Amino acid sequence: MELLFLGTSAGRPVQGRNVTAAALLLPQERGVWLFDCGEGTQHQLMRAGVKLTKLQQIFITHMHGDHTFGLPGLLSTRSSLGTEEPLRLYGPSGLRDWVQRTLALTDTRLGYALEITEVRPGAIYEDERLRVVTDTLEHRVACYGYRIEEKPQRGRLKAELLQGLGVPFGPLYGQLKEGQDVQLPDGLLIRSDDVTEPARSGRIVTILGDTRPCANAVRLAQGADLVVHEATFDAALEDKALAYGHSTTVQAAHTASEAGARRLLLTHFSARFTEADMAQLAEEARALFPATETASDFAVVAVRHANRADA
Amino acid sequence: MELLFLGTSAGRPVQGRNVTAAALLLPQERGVWLFDCGEGTQHQLMRAGVKLTKLQQIFITHMHGDHTFGLPGLLSTRSSLGTEEPLRLYGPSGLRDWVQRTLALTDTRLGYALEITEVRPGAIYEDERLRVVTDTLEHRVACYGYRIEEKPQRGRLKAELLQGLGVPFGPLYGQLKEGQDVQLPDGLLIRSDDVTEPARSGRIVTILGDTRPCANAVRLAQGADLVVHEATFDAALEDKALAYGHSTTVQAAHTASEAGARRLLLTHFSARFTEADMAQLAEEARALFPATETASDFAVVAVRHANRADA
Prior knowledge:
The structure is a homodimer.
Chain A: E1 2-7, E2 21-25, E3 32-35, H1 41-48, E4 55-59, H2 65-68, H3 71-80, E5 87-91, H4 95-105, E6 114-118, E7 122-126, E8 130-136, E9 144-150, H5 159-164, H6 171-177, E10 182-183, E11 189-190, H7 192-195, E12 204-207, H8 215-220, E13 226-230, H9 238-244, H10 249-258, E14 264-267, H11 278-286, E15 292-294, E16 300-302
Parallel strand pairs in A: 3-4, 4-5, 5-6, 12-13, 13-14, 14-15
Antiparallel strand pairs in A: 1-2, 1-16, 2-3, 7-8, 8-9, 9-12, 10-11
């Protein structure tokens, strides 16, 4: 599971940073989920070599243009590439109206089913492996954060031990891996728990939209392996952050710290900041939450388990 | 007067070619006019070093997304750059509704007046130096072509001759340049026509939207110094061009030839064509209209007078 940053600038694009979008690349080629879709997101995906045909779901945090204006073009291009796979689009109230009117007024016909869900707080998606929970944040318009929870995974089989016990390769391995105890032809009972590594807890990624510091942000980020938090302003501009419904570096760090998160990626930087400012922005946050980095366009961040470095 | 191509791909962006837009750079820093605004046009302008604060007018040929999806972001960024200069936006019916709803639904507030005109055939703009005429084309949706006519300019003063006649530098020069005859203190009558170069006719640039070959395209391009014409397909795909309301290379050349135009720039190439195909596409058109080139992103084309190479 990797997070690919496609845009890390607030409000408008600047040289080297596009407006907001990030792609969650799921393991084992299980597809791509997109979080926000500023103008030019389809261009960034093309540059990064991520095929739009793999895109399965899009989550929009709020309706501001720097998070949405890339949607119509991306939806259209995904269609013109010929895929007929349905696409699910989640976001705030108003999203359906805007997308449907835009497609109609521009005579854009999609060759796949577009399922639009206007979200409310709670669980909004669940499959065998993942669950997505959303809640409201505090911005100038309705805004949501998304928490992606991987379900606990059964541990790996202890292959050497199984060989030593004489378990033949084949269906028995699958049964043991699934948690079933099995009996060998010679009567030996093999308990699944004895031959599998401990179950590992699932990973948690929290991607927050634009927000002032708030309790819901902390709750969404609780124990997360990776938190993506806006840091539109530096610590000196806390008054501006408050006025515009944004956060500073230090406020983002405070939220991550309160939540007991493991790693913080700052993004959505005001256009006033240049590459030369990034070290200082990171430092401000690290004073409170050491595991902080500033995101940059095309950065790929691996989402690691709390207890393993190689996941 | 120069035309800067910002996007030359049809339907969707491809590596090295964005969707449609072109900027007319007016002489003497008189500003920039934009023709169509596919997604990413603001990014292309930024890369080309053209400031959005100089943008005065936008002309949209038709509502298809590859000609319009860059508008909301561009309008928003022009505002966030702080300019309060009004912006005029021209285009087909439906444009006002879409732009206004999009800005409202995304809570985008512009710090300048946006004047939207839904055009009808005829003259839609006129100032001291330029006039813009539009007419309908034949596409799957309502589509317009734009003809930009420079008004005739009085010829330059013959400076050496004036010196020889003893005309003192100053206001008299201005009067002569404006076409007034003047009398010197010694009684000598200087006729304006005798001391100015012949008036030069204004330049004409015609920028056509997506279209099948049609009489209006020929009329709009009549005697133009530069015609920008779509060539979505090559000559072999004439059936597709007909089916989708587009033109082939050869059809574009035929229109330019019928119109007695001086120069043809082909653009809006189907994503099926790569850079390697461009020579062939140009050749197909040149067989009928030799002064043909294929446009590429960031190409700057000077609009020259019929009778002068340096204009």
